[in-house]
Amino acid sequence: MLARLMKYEIKSTARLFIPLYAVLLIFALLNRFLNPFETLEAAESFSIQILLRGLSIGAYFFLIIAVFVITLVIIIQRFYKNLLGDEGYLMFTLPMKPWQHIANKLLTAILWCVFSVTVITGSFFILFDSGQIFEFLNYLKDSIKQTFGTAGFLVLPTLVIAQLTAGLMMLYNAMALGQLFQKNRLLASFGMYCALYSIQQVIYVICLLLLANTSFLSLIRTGAPAPWDMNLFLGTLAISGFLLAAAHFVVVNYVLNTKLNLD
Amino acid sequence: MTWDLTADRPIYAQLIEQLELRICSGTYPPGSRLPSVRDLAQEASVNPNTMQRALARLEEDGLLYSHRTSGRFVTEDAELIRKTKNKLAHEQVQEFLQRMKDLGFEYNEILSIITDIAEELIK
Amino acid sequence: MSNLLECKNLSKHFGPVKALDNISLSVGCGRIVGLLGPNASGKSTFIKICNHLLTPTSGEIRISGFHPGVESKKIVSYLPERNYLNDWMKVSDIISFFSDFYSDFSKEKAYDMLKKLNIHAGDRLKTMSKGTKEKVQLILVMSREAQLYLLDEPIGGVDPAARDYILDTIIGNYSENATVILSTHLISDIEKVLDEVIFLREGQIVLHQTVDEIREETGKSVDSLFREVFKC
Questions:
Q1: Which residue among A40, A42, C124, C166 is least packed, with the fewest CB closer than 10 Å?
Q2: Are A142 and A94 part of one and the same domain?
């Protein structure tokens, strides 16, 4: 049943994301042909051509930011509108458990975050010389290997996913707690986000202080820590991310199960 | 024939009267099959349970009978239909007389009014 | 258990406001029930609790033996008093959605009803008027073979012709195994269709009786009795 929910969730969001991605890729293609970097470098004086190309490259970078922002907005909106707005009357009367709704939103959101990053990377391939990019990627690979060892290729992505999951769950939690208020729910959700964020920071600081004196001593003392110590530190961060996400999940599930308060 | 139901009396009782009227007037001829409860309820815009109760009552009275598989039928007992017709006539006349009495007419006055109007109609 | 819907000492408070105040009632199978009361009398709150959209403050409610939850949602078909459909979807999309999630949903029935009302399955909801959208929702809800239909103000916003159609659909859809509970304040239009009525006032049950009992005992229609009970 979760798969079925996800099918519809992906369908409803794809109609927003795919045009967005298409526009970004088209702009990348456009810029490749206009080749603004070369023109800008070669230009000796101001001309309309330069202005246009400047604008086009500006638009491209603006679009990259827009993809991130819109991804975030859609993720928030899908939870707020589809579950806590009028559409919630349909969603919460489906024969589904609340955790399935949360998991559905979360997994789809992670999926689109990954896609957004992939598409932006893809647009670099269109815009720039692929040789240059591969060079950069190789450099990146080597640096990771040097600092973190081979384990870094597992630990770093895990950390990214963990922190992303925790971040998304905190957003959902803020909205779930915000809907408990009878009025000004959007504002309440924002307030809840600030509160949750503060609590999370406090927890992190306390954990760091506790752990700093024990496990991570070498990390602080040495200028160039060993890969093992780095991985241990990042791994702990990843696990704490998952733990936080789980804590948020439990709260959201409880609220949606027993404290649902649709308008 | 439309289903006239007033707001102040039990719907069940009114449905019985209306069904009797339809049987006596030949809308549902003797031996014919009645529409289903659902169709009748839809036609009269009433609750199917209420329609069902009214039909069950008419079955008890013998005006209807049901076949387990093929539905409900109007009785072929002409005598029973005639009796029902008389009963309905009785009720109509009684009601009419009561209203005329309320208007202050005496019986002989009422009779002459009826004859006058009837003669006019025949002309 | 013989009763389809059973609730005991059910209360729902919103802060100091008692939306439902210690309600106990039971409704059997094969009934068409009117949940009647002025605005803010607790009708919607009650229906939302049945749908697990609200959790009661105290008391208990069971539908076919189940507490509100996944099992009860499988057998309850709910028409809320608002538009809950995605505007960008086509009617046919929504029909697939319903048949994907509700095993008791009949596509044929839905398409049949659409055809009768001249609504095209390929149309998007955003191109439709408010009344047509309401009809689509009603079709979706009535195309399920549910045990309990909970219709919140189904005839509130529609024209008289559509109102007749809705009542006709409710009668036509009648089954001995299913119960329909509908909330409204337009009583005269529907009282002939109802078996029994529940009067709610300020979260309490004022009366729970069959329509014919009321007419027999008071010599009044439910509508006029309602006007008397809730006289301002």
A1: A42
A2: no
